[in-house]
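Below is a concrete protein record.
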Amino acid sequence: MTSLQAAVDDRPREECGVCAVVGHDDAATLCYLGLYAQQHRGQETAGIVSARLGDHGGIQHRVHRGLGLVPDVFDQQTLADLGGRVCIGHVRYSTTGAPNPQNTQPIAASLRFGPVAVAHNGNLTNAHLLRASLKSQGAIFGTTIDTEVIVHLISHVMTATFEEAMHEALQSIEGAFSLVILHNDTMYAVRDAHGFRPLELGRLPNGGWMVASETVAFDLVDAKPVRSIAPGEILRIRPGAEPETLKPLPARERAQCIFEYVYFSRPDSVIDGVAVQAVRRRMGEELFREHPAEADAVICVPDSAMSPALGYAHAGSLPFVMGLVRNHYVGRTFIEPTQRIRDFGAKVKYNATRSAVAGKRLVVVDDSIVRGTTAQKIVRMLRDAGATEIHFRIASPPWRHSCLYGIDTPDPRTFAATGRDVEQIRAHLEVDSLGYLSPDGLKRAVGRQEGWCMACFTGRYPTSERRLTKEMLEDQDLSFGPLPKQFTSIGS
């Protein structure tokens, strides 16, 4: 990543989004729309696999995947060619494996059980171990992504039925996985037993069913949210039938990603029965209670910090003003001016509204700080625009640790909070005061004290063993060591 791109993209990166439609004549089009609504979860690749009758009878899977945004990958003709009444789809930002055509999802394969396709949101923390074990048994991999491990595991389990093989295979994987799996024309929605990543069930107006990472996918096609897929649940949906819950995965400590509410999920989504926008507003209210400030106005770093800034302003009876405006048409590459412009990268994305901030003591609310480079440049921008005081307020605790469960985070050695206390971070950002929402304040805002993964803030990783991906191990110059015994004879 260039220094300019780093300046613009100084945030945790998107994960992935999944979607599935069962029992609708326009399943592929509805899936396309569901992916479009979840484009914020990944902008690198998109794909759909549909199930339809083949030319010679039997169920055939049709696949269309590509690099780029959803409307760039699909058009009316490709959706018509997909056809079928059942399909699964995926949008991706890569957390494992490079963004190339081979690594697009859903992963599709022909197994002894028939055609199978898998779309995955999350990150398997033992994928490198499983991949090495499977390769030793003769498996040939066509991608570098962890999702393909799931397909090979299902193939290697010697059971009589697909559902038995799937259930056994899923017990071998660790980490975060919210999956939609297509076998013939039956769709399975699966959420790992920790419940790291969201997965929601909705009902279409015609009586069909839809599954997606977020409920915003339902809104676009007039589907009604029904409920969340429970941690450890395996839900089977066949065309023309009611959903059936199969034997669940073994129970684990609940560890739902709390950062979904802070930043990743769209504010108009409802995740596990909780409205994201309401949580974010409460985050701002809690932030004021913990870190009040004497100020003339509250502004936000747009757009994800809008709701917490409004909550902070309401709790403190302070006016909210649009002190920063965001350019929504920023890509990942730019032509920089020949003459160096100070903080050009940040200015491409944000601009201060001089009339709103000049001569004012400001509270600046953001959802999180990772490296802090963009925050420094925003501070300079606001001071150049005439702000007399800047009190930075962050609607989450300090980021100190990498996420292992599906969020692409920078090297923690580059985090603003690494090796610094809050006062040192304040000096680093050159602000008049700095306050972070506490872990307890964040939990109060979401309305539940237990059952959260907050590893990025606390360093407490919920999985039984901290099995790192191959890339993380290489970065830390660690040895793989021998494979665990339970992974040396998968399917035997």
Notes: The chain has 18 helices and 23 strands. Confidence is low (pLDDT under 50) at residues 1-9, 465-492. The radius of gyration is 23 Å. The CA atoms of residues 5 and 332 lie 6 Å apart.
